[in-house]
Amino acid sequence: MSPTNVILSLIEQQIPGLHFVHLLALRHAHVTLVEASVSPSSPITNRTLAEIDLPENTSIIAILRGGKIVIPTGTTSIQASDEIIAIARRESEQELRELLVGE
Question: Domain containing 12 — which CATH number?
Answer without folding.
Answer: 3.30.70.1450
